[in-house]
Amino acid sequence: MTWSERTDASNFERNVAFLKQHVLPLSEAHHRHLTLFSHVPKTAGTSLESYLAQQHRLSDIVHINAPDLNRLPAVLTMKKHFPKLICGHHPMHGMLYQLLPAQPLVHFTVIREPISRVLSYFNYVMAKTDHPMHPIAVQSGLQAFIEASPSPELNNGQTRRFVGQLHRDPESDEALVHLAQQVLTDCFSAVLLTEHLVDNLSVMAPLMGWQTPQLPQQNRSPQHTSMDDLSPQTRSLIEHRNQADIALYQWCQNQPLN
Q: Using one digit for the tens of pLDDT, what is the confidence trace for 89-140?
């Protein structure tokens, strides 16, 4: 049975089992190991990818998101050797983890304070006129956009991504958070925070043999709406729709990087 023939739940279980076996703790990480950056949208991941690209030869890097990899899985083996750095948007039930060699690897991600992330997502859609949700955002405004929830990213998108439930009805918030905590603990070498990204990288860079982090500002969304513009009702709505993400972020704030 192939990845496309399995359910999301089955692929999630299979991927978790693989990662538990092969992901290294950060204390054992080194640049010689295969490195995966799992990019959660609107967490400063594009800036981080630019920094990571400076630490590797271009021939050693593959940047690809899940939909493109699903269409062309052979891209990982098109070069003379398997890539040393893979970056992109890949949920935990994604195909990527079933295409990796069975060897030690460094797997890390970045998460962001959920209210600012949702707001950044809305601003991104507002600024990108060719985005399929742009007309909805322009016509509805922020609160109605959140209420309509045209993207799963607006509703506990970080937590759902980590538990393989981004594109299906999720479990209760409590169950989501508990499972996501297990996944982040067992399947990731490090979980970085957007709000402390440079400090986090200052810890990770020496272990990986990377240069001192100086992050370029990439893919920053114009601020059509700022945090100060949020009405109490809109802020409350975002909080209500992202209770699991809020709880997971608070938990991550209290975890050691390595």
A: 999 999 999 999 999 999 999 999 999 999 999 999 999 999 999 999 999 9
Distance CA 7, CA 196 (A): 36
Tokens 């990731």 -> residue: 188
Q: Which residue has the tokens 């092969």?
A: 22
Nearest to 30 by CA among 203, 211, 212, 206: 206
DSSP the chain: --GGGS-HHHHHHHHHHHHHHHBPPGGG--TTSEEEEE--TTSSHHHHHHHHHHTS-GGGEEE--HHHHHH-GGGGGSSSS--SEEEE---TTSGGGGSS-SS-EEEEEEE--HHHHHHHHHHHHHH-TTSTTHHHHHHH-HHHHHHH--SGGGTTHHHHHHTT-TTS----HHHHHHHHHHHHHHH-SEEEEGGGHHHHHHHHHHHHTPPPP-----SPPP-SS-GGG--HHHHHHHHHHTHHHHHHHHHHHTS---
Upper half-sphere CA count for residue 16 (Cβ side, 13 Å): 19
Rg (CA), the chain: 18
Alpha-carbon span 220 to 231, nearest angstrom: 23
User: Each residue of 19-74: pLDDT tens digit?
Assistant: 999 999 999 998 889 999 999 999 999 999 999 999 999 999 999 999 999 999 99
Let me know: does 203 contact 108? Beta carbons within 8 Å: no
